[in-house]
């Protein structure tokens, strides 16, 4: 993960706009063939019975993670990062917890002997994040554009 981050950072610093545009199709292919099957597998193995035992505590934990994981940090760093309110709120909200969190949780669960309820709560956070960010993405994007005055941009289409 660290190597991928460093490679992405290096690419971002050295690439041009046309190189980035060409990579949109690759990004879409990776999403289609790698990320989507991971979410299907996650959906097929959801621990419904453990969630039932955890009750509302798991949902409250998930909501607390969504609200307090990124938002307070970005609001505190708004001035040093030179972000406006719309930028800080948008970046603070739209940082979904993804499948990689389940991967890391699984690795640690095996090493540390973490109880099944902790694993189920972690998966609940990922599922609630996926649903919450998916449901609010269109409205959030429209609100952000309205608040910042950004015009809509169209994705480049492949020739043909």
Protein described:
The protein is mainly alpha-helical. It folds into two domains: 1-45, no CATH class; 47-152, no CATH class. It contains eight helices and no strands. It has helices spanning 2-14, 17-44, 48-54, 56-68, 71-76, 85-93, 99-112, 116-148. Residues 154-160 have low confidence and may be disordered.
Average the pLDDT over all residues and give the rounded result: 82
Number of domains: 2
Low-pLDDT sequence parts? 154-160
Major beta-sheet overview: none
SSE diagram, text form:
Blueprint: H1 2-14, H2 17-44, H3 48-54, H4 56-68, H5 71-76, H6 85-93, H7 99-112, H8 116-148
Essential attributes:
single chain; 160 residues; mainly alpha; 2 domains; globular; disordered C terminus
What is this structure, in a nutshell?
With 160 residues, this protein is mostly helical. 77% of the residues lie in helices and 0% in strands. The chain is built from eight helices and no strands.
